[in-house]
Amino acid sequence: MSEERITEIHDDDGATHTHTTIVRDPAPERRGSMGFIWLILLVAIIAVAALVIFNQMGTAEVAKDNAVAGAAAEVGTAASQVGDAVEQGVDNLTE
What we know:
Blueprint: E1 2-10, E2 16-24, H1 34-94
Antiparallel strand pairs: 1-2
C-alpha cells in the first residue's frame, strides 16, 4: 500500500512550491523454501540411518539365533554318539 503526501511551501516573496512524496510500505520479507528442503533432507537422512541401524541389529539377532541352534544341534549329535558308544560297550560286554 502506498500513501501520497503533498507539501506546499510558501516563500516570503509569495511564491508557492509543491513537493510530492510517495511513501510505500516495505515489501514483506519472502523466505525461500530452501530451509524447508533442508528439513526434509535431514529427516530423510535420519530415517535411512535408523533403518540401517535397526537392520544391522536384526541381522545380529538372527546370527545369534542361528549360532544357538547350531550349538544345540552339535550337542544333540554328541549325545547320539555317546549313546551309540554306550550301546556298543554293552554289546561287547554281553557277548
